């Protein structure tokens, strides 16, 4: 895999975003949701971010394209982790392990 050169300024920017987001996190109340609708929503968000990434590449904004691709994968990975998507146990592309989310 090719090494990506990311400036300290860009890293600082995304660390700031991540840290501010973490600071806002509180556990929500348990809710019942429709599984298929949730899966479709996660998939839709990933597809939108991939579309945005293509747009930013066309505009020459590789930083935003890269960020969008990472957001897209984050939605897919979270969906796989929650069990919304069956990824066949592929732990090289997703953070899924045997026994996760099993009762």
Topology (elements, then pairings):
Blueprint: H1 8-24, H2 35-58, H3 62-82
Helix pairs in contact: 2-3
Tell me what the structure shows.
With 103 residues, the chain is mainly α. It has one domain: Up-down Bundle (Substrate Binding Domain Of Dnak, Chain:A, Domain 2). Helix content is 60%, strand content 0%. It contains three helices and no strands. The longest helix is centred in the middle third of the chain and has 24 residues. It is globular.
User: How much helicity do the residues have?
Assistant: 55-70%
> What structural class should be given to the helix and strand makeup?
mainly alpha
Enter the CATH topology name. Substrate Binding Domain Of Dnak, Chain:A, Domain 2
CATH class: Mainly Alpha
Tell me, what's the shape? Answer: globular
Element-level helix/strand string: HHH
Query: How many alpha or pi helices?
Result: 3
Mean pLDDT: 91
Distance between the termini: 37 Å
Query: How large, in whole angstroms, is the Cα Rg?
Result: 16 Å
Show unreliable segments: none
Q: Beta-strand percentage?
A: under 5%
Largest sheet: none
What count of structural domains? 1
CATH-defined architecture: Up-down Bundle
List keywords for this structure.
103 residues; Substrate Binding Domain Of Dnak, Chain:A, Domain 2; mainly alpha; globular; 60% helix; 3 helices
Précis, in short:
Helix content is 60%, strand content 0%.
């Amino acid at each position: 895999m090719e090494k990506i050169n990311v400036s300290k300024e860009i890293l600082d920017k995304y660390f700031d975003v991540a840290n501010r987001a973490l600071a806002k996190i509180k556990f929500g109340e348990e809710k019942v949701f429709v599984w298929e609708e949730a899966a479709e929503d996660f998939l839709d968000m990933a597809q939108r971010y991939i579309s945005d990434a293509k747009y930013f590449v066309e505009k020459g904004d590789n930083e935003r394209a890269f960020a969008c691709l990472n957001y897209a994968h984050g939605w897919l990975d979270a969906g796989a982790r929650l069990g919304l998507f069956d990824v066949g146990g592929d732990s090289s592309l997703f953070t899924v392990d045997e026994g996760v989310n099993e009762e």
